[in-house]
Write a structure and sequence with these properties.
Number of helices: 6
Helix content: 55-70%
Shape: globular
Number of strands: 0
CATH superfamily: Cytochrome c-like domain
Order of helices and strands: HHHHHH
Oligomer: single chain
Number of domains: 1
CATH architecture: Orthogonal Bundle
CATH topology: Cytochrome Bc1 Complex, Chain D, domain 2
């Protein structure tokens, strides 16, 4: 019984450590997101060509931002500017940017 409790405790520690490592740092994200603000920080901003509304990112769910940036990075989402920006980001940088915007920062 004691060994089973130790095993469960060790497993919980591993899971908790893994969950924490998957989260981003909003302070690091703030520095990284400065390039995002050139478009996403302008209320009502629209691209000239092709014409579309640039979405606000502040308050967006972190998982969505991570998914979107990964899709731009690997070419699943087509947008030349976003692909260029995302392709230079590490997975940790993507997590950090997502944490920054998910905290409601604009």
């Amino acid at each position: 019984m004691k060994n089973q409790l130790l095993l469960v405790g060790a497993l919980l520690c591993c899971l908790a450590t893994g969950a924490a490592s998957g989260q981003g740092d909003p302070e690091a994200g703030k520095r990284l997101a400065s390039t995002c603000m050139g478009c996403h920080g302008i209320p009502g901003y629209q691209n000239v060509y092709p014409s579309y509304h640039v979405p606000k990112l502040g308050g967006q769910h972190a998982d969505y931002i991570v998914s979107a940036l990964q899709a731009y990075k690997n070419g699943q989402r087509a947008h030349d500017t976003m692909h260029a920006n995302a392709s230079a980001l590490s997975e940790q940088a993507i997590q950090d940017i997502a944490a920054y915007f998910a905290a409601g920062n604009e």
